[in-house]
Amino acid sequence: MLQAEGSEAPIKVEFDNFEHGFPEGFGPGWWGRLAYWIGIAFATFQLYVAAFNYLPSQVVRGVHVGFLVLLTFGLIANFTARSDVGRALGWVIGGAGFFCGLYQWIFYADLIARDGDPTRLDLAVGTLLAVLIFEGTRRLMGAALPLMCGACLLYWFFGQYLPSPLNHRGYDFDQIVTHLSFGTEGFYGVPIYVSATYIFLFILFGSFLERAGMIQLFTDVSLGLFGRTRGGPAKVAVFASGMMGTISGSGVANVVTVGQFTIPLMIKFGYRRAFAAGVEATASMGGQIMPPVMGAVAFIMAETLGVQYSEIVKAAAIPAILYFASAFWMVHLEAGKHGLVGMKRSEIPSAWKALVTRWYLVLPLAALVYMLFEGFTPLYAGSMGLALTVTLILGASITAGASSMVIRTIFWVGLALVVAALSRDGLQIVPVASVVAGLIVITAFIRGGFKALRECRDALAESAKSAITVGMACAIVGVIIGMMSQTGVGTIFGGWVIGLGEKSLFLALIMTMLLSILLGTGIPTIPTYIITAALAAPALAKLGVPLIASHMFAFYYGIMADLSPPVALAALAAAPIAKENPDKIGWEAMRIALAGYVIPFVFVYSPALMLQAGDPMAAKLGFYGAVALATFKALVAIGLFGMVAIGFLFTRLTFVERLVALGAAFCLLGDFPFSDTAGFVLSAALALWQWRQRPPAVVEAV
Fold first, then answer.
1. Which of 199, 276, 558, 625 could lock 525 by a disulfide, CB 3.0 to 4.6 Å apart?
2. How do the domains of the chain map onto residue ranges?
3. Could you report the per-residue pLDDT of 434-447, keeping only the tens digit for each?
4. Could you give the CA distance from residue 584 to residue 285 in angstroms, rounded to a whole number?
């Protein structure tokens, strides 16, 4: 809870996990204004990097980490310190961290020249940076991730004393600090590179879209499409959260934004509190796997695999649709089981009217998707999408006072012609930036224009604050990456997975799944994916699993960990909205997301589900035939799992019927003679039996 400006009382905030991040605002008094303007400076620097990219990559990473540490300690002090002295101390510590990042820029040429031969100042700066990153991460996310990275650091220092095969050759202090704090495989590795480029830019993109009114558009369209159907409020939650996931990529952010509306709505129409919150948690976490933006992990995955981001999007598309289809199916069955009805026509807006009125909000997202699939880099596509969003916000502000539709049309057509004239040789950042700058000037001189400009300015500051927890996780996980790259310890675990997989690929997958879920109960999705992918994904690839599928397998279960008690961060975020126990919500979310635990096994055994080559059925049916079969089998399987979890189809299922449904689902997922045939026959028989057992009342449509 924030305190009034000028108050000296501490502000009670829990910083015990990654996803919840900071509370609203920037702190009391001028300390808050300091954080606000530093956030704007941070965002401005990142925009400059995205637009012009003149600085060396190492410098960009260093300054990015410097800003992260500065704002981490500064904001924590703003929200928790009991006095101005405490807040000043936090900012001084953060300033030391900013200097450590700036050190990469000031001494860039010298650091390259003396690579491998650090000075005492280099070692001091590198050590200080490590201490600040560990402590900052502990303050933000709790002790789990720093303790895990600390254990890796201890192994790095003293692993030579362990018995074979766990031992390594041993490394001196200067070797470790240099590798960790000055190379590109430690704090400044691939995760922080992705954070400093793609992730920050897309956080900005999502923030501006939200301020343009995208949440309201998604909500109105969802209500119009599904509000009147059986259990409509829950279907609205699934659809709206899935659409929000296309621009936010953050599960808990979806819960606390969309959930504020959907959870009370579901409760009002008869859903149990735990189930309603579980629906929102399940749908919101799915935002991280929903193209086109997905979560931060997707960008790290693309960079790690060295493939275009569009390839990750294509691979993720069908599994993501299946995930949300499963959640949709679950809430439909739950509504049928308890006789829940939809909303009244008078209570819901028109989806068509919402689209006609605010169709232009879809343009930035459509442009982003088009550019990604045309081969443009995510950095370029995100920059153009962001510029288009800002143009829409400012243009709407300029034309708001125009009474005539003709004048508005002339403005937008004229603006389009100006952009076209400036971009005759291709869409370049300088002409686009010039148009945006011109709109800013015009907006400043019209009535109400300053409100739009303040919205844009606030979006910059809020994006910087939102990027802190993601960025700090990317920084500290560099300890694990650096340790593994220098010691080669990852090959040991990989050897275990390969050895297990030679006996049974299924057991190797189970081992990888358990590792990812166990890691995910204590640390965020990003480091969970990075660790699991580094340890297990290469081994799975050697066992014949397509590389993207092996990495996506690790990713999925990192997400599932956020739904699984005892931690279940998404459930924790939903608990205060639903006024329900987080553990109850977590168990309900696991039940609703049952398909999410199954889909990764499906796309490993049927790579066609991810549009990857190597599917066993491709030889018989061709590639697209294999895709169609894999998708159909997965749809039937998740339909069966929904019946097992909810216990309903046309009427309530008996225990024996649930067992039959479960057996049919496993037949469709299995790989033995006549397994598909058995699965389809059992499914058809069970559906026909349920249809015959249905009550005489009229069966509602979906």
1. 558
2. 29-178, 612-693
3. 788 888 888 888 87
4. 17
